[in-house]
Amino acid sequence: MAKYVGALDQGTTSNRFIIFDHSGRIIGVDQKEHEQIFPQPGWVEHNPLEIWQNTRDVIRGALVKANLTGSDLAAIGITNQRETTVIWNKNTGKPYMNAIVWQCTRTDEICKELAREQGQNRFRDKTGLPIATYFSGPKIKWILDHVTEARSGADKNEALFGTMETWLIWWLTGGPNGGTHVTDVTNASRTMLMDLNSLQWDEAILQSLRIPRQILPRIVPSSDSNTWGTTLKDGPLSAGIPLCGALGDQQAALVGQTCFDMGEAKNTYGTGCFLLLNTGHTPVPSRRGLLTTLGYQINDQRPVYCLEGSIAISGALVQWLRDNLDLISSAPEIEDLAKTVTDNGGAYFVPAFSGLFAPYWRSDARGVIVGLTRYVNKGHIARAVLEASAYQTRDIVEAMNKDSGVELTSLKVDGGMVGNELLMQFQSDILGVPVIRPKVSETTALGAAYAAGMAVGFWSGAEALRKNWDIDKTWQPAMETKVRETYYRQWKKAVDRTFDWVN
């Protein structure tokens, strides 16, 4: 019997392939970044063919580093940047244009038109989502409206749409030669096209956006014992390994953190920042700017739903400080720079580079640094950059507590930024609750591995996975309540300054 499970983590900035053993430990990993393409302000693209090539490279690289072969893996799971949209020709495998990334704001006019008569919540009762540039549906419409070959291909039943897990599953299982065209329920729930209750594409919404049904993938469970196909023996694994698990990246982190009980929550600090709360088998509508979304579905069991708060810019702000301002040469250096000062010096940084997501949903917002005086130095700016993620998380928690009726008592954290202890302490301080980091912080990839492993019986179920989860470190709040609320009040003033920048 194979001893390992592989997980492909197709992220916003890179691809990684991670190999896990039965206890959830990392056995091998390889990573490769891909180009971020900015055709004009607010627009963000990726090259899907580069991502497919990098996928092959990191799979081979991780196997070599772990001294394993593809046949040592029991199954493959995929987790992916959600909402990023690609449409391609099913006969050639060639995309009609670059993928439109989840952060991209080019669909703003489409969204305004959709919301003009019935408002931003026109589709919320069915989809759990407001009309926003974030989601895949408007991106599909933009491509079909602006790329003649894509519309023609859709009309001739030659075009396929997918988010990135769909694109990669299709290629890994054969591509133009019979590749499987599927999307899991979590990714489907981020298109603004799926009915949350039926878990099917909604015909009325498709008609509203002029999206032909035939380009959409089949919706499947996140962990599916009816495997979607096997990898090609002449592919990067050199073996026929079942592909049977897929989750959007934030839902994958929820599973990797074993938040299987109603009321459990996790926050992932990556390119963006995403807080998910398990609300059980019933979708909970939000009236405070949160998203109602699928958490996961195991085979044909009842799906689990979540409330989600989505923040567009978190770790990406550290990258911006590195790449655009050259204040640091590598992301980890920001902690040392921030430690040169004891507070933010009165400076607040609201990174509304592509508008603000939850709980504001303001596409007209743009980034600001406020409170500047001659006292402020680069250490204060670094600290303000880190604090921005913590403040944005508090915005989400405030809304989530009110929507769910349950006060958050602790927060499980994961993602690339949780190694930053200054940030984790400040997060605990500004929330006033303990912040808990697990021993395996790569919970996004781990969740994808769990989904695939459960599908083939490598893990027996939720209880077996809970035994793998263990605490690495807990941060306790140490800030006085009065100070905490003063800081947060200043943050809210800074957020107000971002509004109405784009007419």
| Mean of residue pLDDT values | 93
Termini separation (Å)? Answer: 61 Å
Spatially, the strands of the biggest sheet line up as 16-17-15-14-20-21-22
Structure class? alpha/beta
DSSP helical segment count: 16
- Provide the low-confidence segments as ranges: none
Largest sheet: 7 strands, mixed
Overall strand count:
22
| Rg from Cα | 22 Å
Beta content: 15-25%
What is the helix content? Answer: 25-40%
Shape field:
globular
Describe the model.
Helices cover 33% and strands 21% of the residues. A hairpin with a 5-residue loop joins strand 2 (14-20) and strand 3 (26-33). Helix 4 (136-146) packs across helix 5 (148-155), helix 9 packs across helix 14 and helix 10 (315-323) packs antiparallel against helix 12. The chain has 503 residues and is α/β, with parallel strands linked by helices.
Which features does this protein show?
503 residues; alpha/beta; five-stranded mixed beta sheet; seven-stranded mixed beta sheet
Set down the secondary structure blueprint.
Elements: E1 4-10, E2 14-20, E3 26-33, E4 45-46, H1 48-65, E5 73-80, E6 86-89, E7 99-100, H2 108-115, H3 124-127, H4 136-146, H5 148-155, E8 159-162, H6 164-172, E9 182-184, H7 185-188, E10 194-195, E11 200-201, H8 203-209, E12 218-220, E13 243-248, H9 249-256, E14 265-269, E15 273-280, E16 291-296, E17 304-311, H10 315-323, H11 333-338, E18 348-350, E19 368-370, H12 378-404, E20 411-414, H13 421-431, E21 435-438, H14 443-455, H15 462-466, E22 471-475, H16 481-496
Parallel strand pairs: 1-5, 5-13, 9-12, 14-20, 20-21
Antiparallel strand pairs: 1-2, 2-3, 4-7, 6-8, 10-11, 14-15, 15-17, 16-17, 18-19, 21-22
Helix pairs in contact: 4-5, 9-14, 10-12, 12-13
